[in-house]
Amino acid sequence: MKYFVGIFVFVIVLFFYLHINHHLTKSNDLEVYTIEKPSKDKLDEICNLRQPIIFEYYNEEIMKKGNLKYFNNKYSAFDIKIRDITNNDDTSEMYLPLVLREGINVFQNDQEKKYITENNYDFLEETGAMKVFSYNDMFLRPPLVSKCEYDFLSGTAGSYTPLRYNLTYRNYFYVTQGSINVKLIPPNAGKYLQEKKDYDNFEFKSPINPWEVQEKHKNEFDKVKALDVELKEGMILYVPPYWWYSIHYTKMSSVCTFKYGTFMNTLSILPELSMYLLQGQNIKREIAPKLNTKTKNNELGEKNIHNLEKILKGNKANLDNKDKT
Fold first, then answer.
1. Edge-to-edge strands of the sheet including 203-206?
2. Which ranges of the chain have pLDDT less than 50?
């Protein structure tokens, strides 16, 4: 009996080891695969190689109902989340809610090219766009999926997302309007990117701007080899877990993201999830940073809030002048 119990335990341990090891495997080859009209099985097979993939993907419902123009026409009164990519104050909220139509005005008048929108789960849920995504993504879903995360991204022309990586098993970025440039960096370059693990927001990022590298980071970043890809409307990019990426908005564009986790993927990142849950019990954020002359970051936060309010007031004044004329 002990013999069979020993074999059973060994098989269970081996099963979990092989699957967790599979999800922690990384590929560092500096290349992007381009495929044409892949089948679902072929897509799953190539994604398992852990290399970035680009392919054309036309889904009429998502293309029609998952872009900034459609959202503005139908749901302009709903809130999206605005992020200032220059604000590094950890004590304040990373995202500020703003009505969609005002958010678009901010993007159009943002001279500093620093505002983006992301983390719009609530917006997609309230407007019903979440259902549109979930009903039309069967082609992208991996086998044994346990969690689906959807998001909508956009930003000022010339703005960019932080350089970061994801832990989820499958990460797709679908351009539904406009075009974007994406910089991709393999996982083994992380030692040169000064990785910061932000468990408050579950974001694993670098302080380096890969599009215009700061002087203090140039020596380290010169050791990094990156790939630059351009995505046009109707194209989709698969970014493997642990691959670094940053999106640059060449113009005001729309990007829908589809992220999928599996049970084994969740088990493999359990240490990070545990840290996230523990950190969530210990933090207290401020909606707007308090004024503190001793803290430069807080001063910067106040300045950013002031700039955002100034843009909104300017937009309101322009609208009032148009009404008078």
1. 196-198, 203-206, 163-165, 244-249, 179-185, 227-232
2. 289-302, 319, 322-323, 325
